[in-house]
Amino acid sequence: MKRLHYAWIIVFITFLILLAVQGVRLSFGAFVEPWEREFSLDRGTISLISTLSFVVYGISQPVIGRLVDRWGARAVLSWSTLLTGISIFSTCFITSPWQLFLLYGLGVSLGVGGASNVATSVLVVNWFSKKRGLAFGIMEAGFGAGQMLLVPGSLMLIHWFSWKLTVVALGLLLMVVVLPAALLLLRNHPSEKNEEPIGGAAEEEVETGSKTKAGSVTAMFRMRQFWLLILPFLICGFTTVGLMDTHLIPFSHDHGFSTTVTSAAVSLLAGFNIAGILLSGIIADRWSSRKILCFLYAVRALSIVILIYSHEPYLLLGFAVLFGLVDFATVAPTQMLATQYFQNYSIGLMIGWLSLAHQIGSALGAYVPGVIYTVRGEYTLAFYVSIGMLVLASVMNVMLREPAAMNRDSAAVTEKV
After folding, report:
1. Measured between alpha carbons, how far is 163 from 79 in angstroms, rounded to an integer?
2. Using an 8 Å Cβ cutoff, are 59 and 114 in contact?
3. Among the ranges 31-45, 69-83, 149-163, 276-290, which has the highest mean pLDDT value?
């Protein structure tokens, strides 16, 4: 019987970490109304907490990329899981809004920033020379699983008990279950288990940290494909984690949908999100990631059109299915393109810049719709703005060149020289 390659254990643990840590972050929308009542805050102020969280998360990403290069993904993921657990647990003791800004906006956000796909993507690159698209897909499915389990779970715990008991449960999950698993089972490189990556060691393989050269960041900034990846990913953050994960639950309640219907919609969205993530990862190994992204952003725009007219439960659930399929499905093909376009740069650093863009978009997507809601009493304008941005993202991916064509051109230039 063929022995299971340890790379798949690595993928499973990164899946678990992202499920738990990112699930805590994605559960923010479940706490919006309880925190409004508890601290007498309006929707715009609550959205500002989410915005601060995304800004801190985003700014941390290039730094996290450097720390992964220096300390290794295992250490970064473990310490970040611990910080997130302590911070979310401690929110049960707060008595005023400034403490919520401090613990969630800073503590939780720094922890979530460390236990993100910056560190986990480096592990995938280290452990997989082949089947990277599938590995990225399984890893990113942790986001969807966290959304499917922890968001409706938090919503129901808050409904049945209280938000304080809910944050205690989330903190204990991270500190008692996830942290020990990370410490015991994660390994940074196949050499630590006397193995090679799946697919064997690539000829061009170089340690992630050694790829970083003086001036390499400046060189990346001058590359057209850098911006055509970064800007759509910013729009991705605006329309997913920022807009939907912060405002979908309040939007649903404003439309008179019960907690049961809202939980069903969130669960459906998360379930189909997992399917979409896995499917996009598999397809990214076989088809053009650029074309996949163009399609995903266009379908996401269509799903928001459906949401605008979701005045009946079946329309809300239909939106959840369609949006779920294209929610985090953009991540695997984006990461695939990043590893193909920027082979001579630090993977941790490049993914860090991508994640920074995503979090800037998430911050804007959390705050701007909250302000619009405070002023207008509805989200319709925010949804129309999001649709226009997604159409732009789709067009920008059309403007990208295929990595294979770029590599051929580079090889031809090298031969001439």
Report:
1. 25
2. no
3. 69-83
